[in-house]
Amino acid sequence: MYSKIFFMYQPKFHYEDVCGYEALLRAVFDDGSIIYPNKLMKKHKEDLFFDYFIINKVIGELVGLNHSGIRKHPVSINVSSRFMSSEIDIEQLNLEKAVAFHLQLEFEILESDKISDFDMCNKNISLLSSLGISVSLDDFGTEFCSIERLSRLHHIKFVKLDKSLIDGIEHESSKLKVLKAICVLIKEFNFEVLAEGVETQEVYHLLLQLGIAYYQGFLLGRPLLIP
Fold first, then answer.
1. Which pLDDT band holds residue 160 (cuts at 50, 70, 90)?
2. Which of these, 67, 130, 128, 62, lies nearest to 98 by C-alpha position?
3. In sequence order, what are the residues at sequence separation of 6 or more whose Cβ sits closer than 8 angstroms to the Cβ of residue 76?
4. Cys-Cys link to 104, which of 1, 74, 172, 222 (CB 3.0-4.6 A)?
5. First to last CA, the chain
């Protein structure tokens, strides 16, 4: 079992200015080993209430943070495709606290399983939007996170490029061309592109040349553990 579940907060950037944070889920087992978000979500993929638990835990932690600077920006929370494919029970979410503390929340749909009902997912996106919660698409370029999602989802805020699409672009011109084509495609759907896993100045400048305005990665900001 887990001895502790906690979050680290990694900043997101609009060029070089902080524009938000991602709540990165971590769980520590009794033997001291740590499990990370994708594996943890997969472990609980049959349990929709785990998503509600995680969302409410982030809200509770944000409310209690002394580091109130984080609360000035949107904070994204990873949710499963299964969660977004099922009717969301708003009563299960501690939104009164979120409103009281003026939290700006964003849900990032993980690629851990396939969206089984795009109509329901879009209905949930509209519902969340009416409550001031934006929705983005995480891990574009891996497994189920594909062009189908771009064409069938509406009103997505960001499409986050998986690190695998970015690794090596400074050495492989063909990979850079593919990435350029992907960025053009995403923008055709009027979604913003966010590049994650940016670790060097060379890669950052190449991404700038592709017209990408939003970033996340060790070069600009590492995850923060807030006491």
1. very high
2. 62
3. 12, 20, 21, 22, 23, 105, 106, 107, 108, 136
4. 74
5. 23
DSSP-derived secondary structure for 75-128 = EEEEE-HHHHTS---GGGS-HHHHHHTT--EEEEE-SSS--S-HHHHHHHHHHH
| CA atoms within a 13 Å half-sphere pointing along the CA-CB vector of 39 | 7
Domain ranges of the chain: 2-12+38-216
Say if CB 88 and CB 124 are below 8 A apart. yes
What's the confidence (pLDDT) of residue 112? 67
Burial class (CB in 10 A: 0-12, 13-18, 19+), 1: exposed
Q: Residue 64: what pLDDT?
A: 87
The predicted model gives 26-44 an average pLDDT of: 67
pTM over 0.85: yes
CB 140 within 8 A of CB 110: no
Which pLDDT score, from 0 to 100, does residue 108 have?
95
Tokens at 201, concatenated: 């100045």
Q: Name the pairing type of β-strands 214-216 and 34-35.
A: unpaired
Q: SS3 sequence, 25-75?
A: EEEEECCCCEECHHHHHHHCCCCHHHHHHHHHHHHHHHHHCCCHHHHHCCE
Q: Which CATH architecture has domain 2-12+38-216?
A: Alpha-Beta Barrel (3.20)
C-alpha 161/C-alpha 118 separation (Å) is 21
In what helix (H) or strand (E) does residue 23 lie, and over which residues does it extend? strand 17-29
Average pLDDT over every residue of 48-59: 92
